[in-house]
Write a structure and sequence with these properties.
This protein is an alpha/beta fold and 973 residues long. The protein is built from 44 helices and eleven strands. The chain is elongated.
């Protein structure tokens, strides 16, 4: 090996394959001392005597190199020529080229006129011998000749040729460094893996390697940094990988994998919707590849299933895990088959289906035997098995024995993860133990919870920390220690607020609390009595969505991306195929239209401010730790009440309503209770906008489920207040519904013990948050300005051109005040832009769409959630479009609808129907409502008076059946 290293040091790169080379001792080659040179000369003589031309050529070449270093150019040429002759006899083409190079360099250094010809000859010999290193050095020698002659263009060209010759060697070195990094990563030698990946990137850049090769290394390097918890460095590398993968033709697989890794980083950072978008982009890249890449598709589906577990219900997760299992089976990937089966088993355990969970865990065992010696999945399997055993224990003959067995299994999993340094998985095992009430690894259940939180924190997993806090809160609550339960609940809430405040993704802030509502709801009852500040803080935080958060501070600055996409959506709407167009064309258009809506919604949420920005723009900032001051800032008036209503679905599918009422003096009261199947079905019909009875209102009054729902929604103290007040002096009630409870006709709620309804005793306003105010600070509340003598109000009215009821409404409204009639979106935008309108009245009678952003006033043009945001609307908006007051939502997503969009655009109060109503109902009710508002009456109070009159009127039976289907959504102040 010393001889080989010495040869390499002298520029001889071939391995010493000839037996005679052992005579060239290392000291001779390393220091070239006189004694060493004498020995080389003796080797020359011996090789001639033996007829060993290969050894002779090498020895003579060494003598030529020695003479070159001694500036003995004649001896250099003599020995080089002799070495070349020996090499030619031996058939060593590499040696021939190098000997020719030695001779040519003497000619170059002495400025001989034949120098360039000799170098060119040597270059051709090196190329023929496929000796890239010698060819590269010869190009450098030729470049020096051109430089000396002043030919800079030729000089640069020859330097580039030299670089080209060296690239294969650099590229091969890059491949080796990349593969070495992968091996080091698998062996968990993290620093060595980082160094190898960094070296590979540098070599690839020097070699001008194809972008996909560099993208792959950046991807692997970024993944390593993510696993090690360096989120910032990981993101930097992964974004560089995406840029590389999408440049110069691109590598769709590398792009998909890089986007997938970025999505995983976003998920760990709490940017859940950003992660969702990343996974969708990754999947989109894969779909552009010819053929199928089942393994990457399976990974994306699997991780989407994990992500949706935080954002929505288990059904969405289950669907993705099942799809992942199908792709893993096609890819024949045992690790994926195991993981997807185990995750499905976890979902079955969440649902209480322990039999299915055991079957799925049994299915997950088989692929383990086909995997390489990676202990991670075996340890995760032990974690799932420990959880299943703890859940099965109560139904066994000997529960304590079953619990001990579960504890031993989880302890084994914990010890295994600790040996591997897997903090996040260690914390998960501890979390399972606290939820199962098990001791593990020497920790009691409560100690395990505290340790889980600590380890999640060390792993920079904020979501895990919050899960740990909720788990401990629930455990202390079950143990009867409400003080500690509330303390951990507060810690979880503060952590949630911090994540939402620093997240760049507005939808993450909107959806983050979805997974924690169920965990926190059991705390509400003790919080109301023991810590009312925390109770109200949580209730308000649970409503601090992206949209309502913007409403709180009047900030809704639409981004350029939003405006561009909205214009594109309008153009696409103009290209809608006619009804008689081929089905395939209509389907293609609809798919593209849906995709535009999704992109627009994402751009919209990105336009909304972060919590920090909202706090900075608020009129009254709330210092951390001064939550009570924030509640005081939103103090209720003397006869004002706030009613928070929440819906809780347990693992056994039972549904429970939790209602919390805030009284004028700041005190809270709460009530809760399960709902019958009939009441749950009634809520579902409200949510979906279906008819509530066979004959409308008369059915509601006699519906037992409706009465039960009313009892659950109204706490006893509030009920007593309502019972005591006179119909002529109603209280003001602000209802703050959970997502599922927005579309309940609260005005029609029956009051137990009387024949009256809620509308008889209260002026009702639905509001997203007690912190909500108008989205325009400078917008005056014009509905509060009474009309003086000679003072005429202006109403902008959006009326269809061919609807009879629309004409009737316009005529009735025209008798009251001046109406600026418009019939298209462009006319509407122009009229409102003048800023002189007191009220906007929309009478186009088309039914509302079934998703956010869908056009709902099609008779008057494309007026939808998005287009409303670009209007300068007045303080009061009255909508006659069927279902325009309905609030839509999906689990874990933003509550949305036309009414909320009008509020974002500047309205303070919006009156609208929550479902389909007849045109005659609107024509009888809404013009009178507008007149009262213009005369200075509050919209909610005006609506109450008209609803009570309509309900009791014998003249208009249709109105009598539909009065309760209108509500007022508005700001508190």
């Amino acid at each position: 090996m010393s001889t080989e290293r010495a040869l390499a040091a002298l520029g001889v790169t071939e391995p010493p394959g000839e037996a005679g080379l052992h005579r060239l001792r290392a000291p001779v080659l390393l220091d070239r001392s006189p004694d060493g040179v004498d020995e080389v000369r003796r080797t020359v003589a011996q090789a001639r005597a033996d007829g060993d031309d290969h050894l002779l050529g090498r020895a003579l070449f060494l003598l030529a190199q020695y003479a070159w270093q001694q500036d003995d150019y004649p001896s250099t040429v003599e020995n080089a020529d002799l070495a070349r002759a020996a090499y030619e006899r031996a058939g060593d083409r590499v040696g021939v080229a190098r000997a020719a190079q030695s001779r040519a360099n003497v000619l170059r250094i002495t400025s001989h006129r034949d120098a360039e010809g000799a170098l060119t000859e040597a270059l051709l010999l090196a190329r023929r011998a496929q000796d890239a290193v010698t060819e590269a050095t010869l190009w450098l020698d030729l470049a020096l000749v051109a430089q000396k002659s002043g030919d800079t263009a030729t000089y640069a060209a020859r330097i580039e040729e030299a670089e080209r010759c060296l690239r294969p060697s650099l590229l091969a070195a890059g491949h080796a460094a990349r593969n070495l990094g992968e091996v080091k990563e698998q062996r968990r030698e993290v620093q060595a893996a980082r160094d190898s990946y960094g070296r590979a990137v540098r070599l690839y850049e020097d070699a001008g390697a194809p972008a996909p090769a560099t993208a792959t290394v950046l991807l692997w390097w970024g993944r390593t940094e993510r696993v090690q918890g360096d989120a910032e460095r990981s993101r930097e590398l992964l974004e560089a990988a995406v840029r590389k993968a999408t440049s110069g033709g691109g590598d769709l697989v590398a792009e998909a994998e890089s986007r997938r890794e970025l999505a995983m980083a976003d998920k760990l950072a709490g940017n859940l919707r950003e992660a969702m978008d990343g996974y969708r982009r990754a999947r989109s890249a894969l779909r552009r590849i010819e053929g199928v890449n089942p393994l990457t598709l399976a990974n994306i589906e699997f991780e989407l299933g994990e992500l949706l577990g935080a954002l929505s219900g288990p059904e969405h997760s289950r669907r993705h895990f099942e799809e992942a299992y199908r792709w893993y089976r096609e890819a024949d990937e045992p690790r994926g088959l195991h993981n997807s089966s185990r995750e499905l088993a976890e979902l079955a355990m969440d649902a209480g289906d322990l039999s299915s969970a055991r079957d799925l865990l049994t299915r997950a065992v088989a692929p383990l035997g086909r995997q390489t010696a990676d202990p991670m999945n075996r340890l995760r399997m032990l974690t799932s098995l420990g959880r299943l055993l703890s859940l099965e224990a109560p139904a066994t003959v000997d529960p304590p024995r079953h619990h001990r067995r579960a504890g031993r299994v989880l302890t084994a999993a914990l010890n295994g993860f600790e040996r591997l340094g897997q903090l996040r998985n260690e914390a998960l095992v501890l979390l399972v133990s606290v939820r199962g009430g098990l001791g593990v690894g020497g920790y009691s259940p409560m100690e395990a919870g505290e340790e889980a939180i600590r380890r999640y924190g060390s792993a920079n997993d904020r979501l895990g920390e919050i899960e740990g806090q909720w788990a401990l809160s629930q455990a202390w609550s079950e143990a009867g220690d409400e003080v500690r339960a509330l303390a951990h609940g507060r810690s979880a809430l503060l952590a949630i607020e911090e994540v939402r405040a620093t997240s760049p993704d507005a939808v993450t802030r909107a959806g983050f609390l979805h997974g924690t509502r169920s965990a926190a709801l059991p705390l509400l009852m003790p919080a109301v009595s023991g810590d009312p500040a925390f109770a109200e803080q949580w209730l308000e935080s649970a409503r601090d969505w992206a949209i309502t958060g913007a409403l709180r501070t009047g900030v809704a600055d639409l981004s350029p991306d939003f405006r561009r996409l909205h214009a594109e959506l309008k153009r696409h709407e103009d290209e809608r195929p006619p009804e008689g167009a081929p089905a395939a064309r209509r389907t293609t258009w609809q798919s593209a239209h849906r995709a535009l809506h999704e992109r627009l919604f994402f751009a919209f949420t990105q336009s909304l401010p972060t919590t920090e920005q909202r706090t900075g723009s608020a009129a009254t900032g709330i210092e951390p730790g001064n939550e009570q001051a924030e509640i005081d800032h939103h103090r209720l008036g003397a006869r004002e009440y706030a009613l928070y209503v929440e819906l809780f679905t347990g693992t056994d599918r039972t549904v429970e309503v939790v209602s919390v009422c805030r009284h004028p003096n700041g005190s809270l009261e709460a009530t809760h209770g399960p709902l019958s199947t009939e009441a749950v079905a009634l809520l579902a019909r409200f949510r979906d906008g279906q008819d509530v009875g066979q004959d409308g209102e008369s059915s509601l009054r006699a519906d037992g489920a409706w009465s039960e729902l009313a009892d659950r929604l109204l706490p006893s103290g509030l009920h007593s207040v309502l019972g005591a007040c006179a119909e002529t002096d109603p209280v003001r009630l602000f209802v703050l519904p959970a997502n599922e409870l927005w579309n309940v006709p609260y005005a029609a709620l029956p009051l137990s013990g009387s024949t009256g309804q809620l509308v008889d005793k209260a002026v009702i306003t639905l509001t997203p948050s007690m912190r909500t105010r108008s989205a325009r600070h400078e917008q005056p509340a014009r509905h509060g300005r009474p009309r003086g003598l000679g003072d005429e109000h202006t109403v902008v009215g959006l009326f269809p051109t061919d609807a009879p009821m629309g004409r009737l409404e316009r005529e009735r409204l025209g008798k009251v005040t001046k109406v600026r009639r418009v019939s298209s979106f462009e006319q509407l935008a122009g009229a409102l832009a003048e800023g002189a309108s007191d009220l906007l009245y929309c009478a186009a009678h088309g039914e509302a769409g079934h998703r956010p952003g869908q056009d709902i006033l099609t008779e008057a043009g494309a007026l939808n959630d998005w287009s409303v945001l670009e209007l300068a609307v007045p303080a009061t908006v009255v909508l006659g479009c069927c279902g325009s007051g309905r609030i839509w939502h999906q689990p874990g997503s933003e509550p949305s609808g036309l009414a909320l969009s009008f509020m974002l655009a500047g309205a303070r109060q919006v009156v609208a129907p929550i479902k389909k109503v007849h045109g005659s109902t609107c024509a009888h009710l809404l013009p009178d409502l507008a007149e009262r508002v213009l005369d200075g009456q509050d919209p909610a109070a005006a609506l109450r008076a008209l609803q009570r009159g309509a309900r009791d009127s014998p003249v208009t039976p249709r109105l009598r059946d539909e009065w309760h289907l209108f509500h007022c959504i508005g700001a508190v102040r």
